[in-house]
Design brief:
There is one protein chain. With 350 residues, this protein is mainly alpha-helical. It has one domain. The chain is built from 15 helices and no strands. The longest helix is centred in the last third of the chain and has 33 residues.
């Protein structure tokens, strides 16, 4: 029989509570997948517009990471060393495996990339610097295969142990969010009125996808955690709803999706959301491998495109069928490769 969730964070507040985050991970992964598929395959206009909103599902991952990151530090016996070790083992093996797969594809199966102005090359991605250092080719050295988000994850995981020492109440989490929100507004204003791209390429996009702007979504997840812990859910919900009603300039779509995610977490905090049997196992399976698919699906699409061009005439039924088939097979193979890297790292360092 499922248990009702309490306000205190007891081991993610039981199995029934963890299913909330499985929902969110699965939904976010499917949303990101949908937007990129809509860019590669023909579909009705309405369907393409709906799928396009999946671009903002990335912020759902940011909110989840912040919420669960906070919950870890308020468990009995939690240490900073254990946190860094667990996060590194959870994120870096799969991320580095995805970078290696991208490197092999680019260097051996395409014409290769242009030189990096800072002479770091692929080290940009291994060190999480791709949305911190500008480049002369944004799509090569700032956002190859959608890796822009990983800089934000790495920065957040690196600083949260220090942040949590000062931000340990609901009021302080609100102050942190407002600080991050104001910083993001300032960056957007600088981009609009003062920052010139020359001599770099798409410097405005790099800054918009950098931790300077995206950290506000992590802060929103932290604020939601403290709202649940400190029994401020009603006040937090009112605040979030008011923010969602602001004009688009003050609440752009990525922020709106983050707000809706937080409202979902707040609304189900004390509800019975337990799922049993095959549906639960299916949901857990999708959630478990969502990060693998997220990291490699764009690379799989690029491989599908290249093979389809070589075998079929562009924009034909055969072209799209081959492209879809190769994409599915490549995604599955990449997931196996990343899972192997994950398990190997766990055996070596556990």
């Amino acid at each position: 029989m499922s248990k009702q969730m309490s306000v205190t964070p007891r081991k993610e507040q039981g199995k029934s509570y963890s299913i909330i985050f499985d929902y969110l991970r699965a939904f976010a992964m499917l949303g990101v997948l949908a937007v990129h598929l809509s860019q590669q395959f023909p579909m009705p206009r309405l369907m393409k517009e709906v799928a396009g909103m999946g671009a903002f599902c990335v912020q759902i991952f940011f909110v989840i990471s912040a919420y669960l990151g906070c919950s870890y530090f308020f468990r009995p016996g939690a240490t900073i060393g254990q946190y860094y070790r667990k996060r590194a083992l959870r994120i870096l093996p799969t991320y580095y495996a995805a970078i290696v797969a991208a490197m092999v594809y680019i260097e051996f199966f395409t014409k290769g990339y242009n030189a990096d102005v800072f002479h770091l090359g692929w080290l940009r991605y291994f060190l999480g610097l791709n949305t911190i250092l500008p480049s002369v080719d944004f799509w090569q050295w700032n956002n190859a295969f959608g890796f822009w988000t990983m800089t934000n994850f790495i920065v957040f995981y690196a600083i949260i142990p220090m942040v949590i020492k000062f931000v340990d109440t609901w009021r302080k989490s609100v102050a942190l969010f407002l600080l991050c929100y104001i910083a993001a507004v300032i960056v957007r204003l600088l981009i609009k009125f003062y920052i010139s791209e020359a001599p770099f390429h798409q410097l405005d996009s790099m800054l918009m996808w950098s931790p300077l702007v995206q950290m506000q979504h992590f802060a929103l997840g932290m604020m939601t955690y403290f709202a649940v812990r400190d029994s401020k859910t009603s006040l937090a919900a009112i605040m979030l709803i008011c923010m969602a009603m602001l004009p688009c300039g003050f609440c752009p779509p990525p922020m709106l999706f983050a707000i809706l995610t937080c409202l979902f977490i707040l609304s189900v905090k004390e509800r019975d959301v337990n799922i049993m049997g095959a549906p639960r196992k299916c949901l857990q399976f999708v959630a478990k491998y969502s990060f693998h698919v997220y990291l490699t699906h764009l690379l799989a699409l690029a491989i599908g495109q290249q093979i389809a061009v070589a075998l079929c005439a562009p924009s034909t039924v055969c072209f799209y069928m081959v492209k879809l088939f190769v994409f599915i097979v490549a995604t599955l193979l990449f997931c196996c490769f990343l899972e192997l890297a994950q398990r190997t790292a766990n055996k070596l360092f556990s």
